[in-house]
Amino acid sequence: MINSFLNYTGSKYRILDQILPAFPDKCRTFIDLFGGSGVVTINYPHAQNYVFNDINKPLIDLFEYIQTNSPNNVELEIDSIIREFELTNTFKMGYTFYGASSKEGLANINRIGYSRLRNYYNSLIDTSQKPLYLYALILFAFNNQIRFNSHGDFNVPVGKRDFNKNMRTKLQNFSKAWQKISPQLKSEDFRNIKPSSGDLIYADPPYLITTAAYNENGGWTDKDDLELMQYLDKANQSGVAFILSNVFEHKGKRNQRLIDWASQYRVTDLSNSFNNSNYHTNRGKSREVMVTNQ
């Protein structure tokens, strides 16, 4: 399995072995409706064509940058930014060079340089450079998170890690595989994505009853949830296969309408992946599921 070059909230990497067996052996166009980390798209090699969609435009711009630049050049550009903003480079220098350790992390050392980099990114007018600087920010951000405030400014605090060997390896592996499938990139509302008979939709939307970072400000509403179900019903009637990831129950909440809707399709329970995400909880039952029309 190929992991994403991003540590994305809600990534399905750790449960791909449960999801991928439900996918057909072939399809005309694979549509990743809520693309996120890209791990599902990149690990499904059986489509003739790929559409990768996400409403987060800076994220799609970053994927386009990765798709059109060699990973070696990306590494060189990031290393240049690291020097420019006087950030750590433990891949080349190690932790002891900075008087730090892996356990303590690098946040205190990088705090000033990271703040300068974040301010620079948020004031950057040259949009062609924004994806590169966004990637640099993500690499040094807390838990490599991607989050923007209501003004569109990146607002994640500094993290404990830098552009280390693990992140460089992820970039190399992901980038090479991504460029081979070369998806069509879109940043649109899911309602505007029009599938055709013979296509396969994978939908991993924000979960209505969780408080993940991508939904903490009500970015996904009850109306969105209902209209996604209607969208998938229409796709089903048009001969389009779909696979939906979602949760029926979480932290004492139930999405009863989703449960009722899914009863007309095939439902498979998934081993919970929340222990690797921001909304981990030891209180209350969580039931993560996959709904398919095949």
From TrEMBL:
<dbReference type="GO" id="GO:0032259">
    <property type="term" value="P:methylation"/>
</dbReference>
<keyword id="KW-0489">Methyltransferase</keyword>
<dbReference type="GO" id="GO:0009307">
    <property type="term" value="P:DNA restriction-modification system"/>
</dbReference>
<keyword id="KW-0949">S-adenosyl-L-methionine</keyword>
<dbReference type="GO" id="GO:1904047">
    <property type="term" value="F:S-adenosyl-L-methionine binding"/>
</dbReference>
<dbReference type="GO" id="GO:0006298">
    <property type="term" value="P:mismatch repair"/>
</dbReference>
<dbReference type="InterPro" id="IPR023095">
    <property type="entry name" value="Ade_MeTrfase_dom_2"/>
</dbReference>
<dbReference type="InterPro" id="IPR029063">
    <property type="entry name" value="SAM-dependent_MTases_sf"/>
</dbReference>
<dbReference type="Pfam" id="PF02086">
    <property type="entry name" value="MethyltransfD12"/>
</dbReference>
<dbReference type="InterPro" id="IPR012263">
    <property type="entry name" value="M_m6A_EcoRV"/>
</dbReference>
<comment type="similarity">
    <text>Belongs to the N(4)/N(6)-methyltransferase family.</text>
</comment>
<dbReference type="InterPro" id="IPR002052">
    <property type="entry name" value="DNA_methylase_N6_adenine_CS"/>
</dbReference>
<protein>
    <recommendedName>
        <fullName>Site-specific DNA-methyltransferase (adenine-specific)</fullName>
        <ecNumber>2.1.1.72</ecNumber>
    </recommendedName>
</protein>
<keyword id="KW-0808">Transferase</keyword>
<dbReference type="InterPro" id="IPR012327">
    <property type="entry name" value="MeTrfase_D12"/>
</dbReference>
<dbReference type="GO" id="GO:0009007">
    <property type="term" value="F:site-specific DNA-methyltransferase (adenine-specific) activity"/>
</dbReference>
<dbReference type="GO" id="GO:0043565">
    <property type="term" value="F:sequence-specific DNA binding"/>
</dbReference>
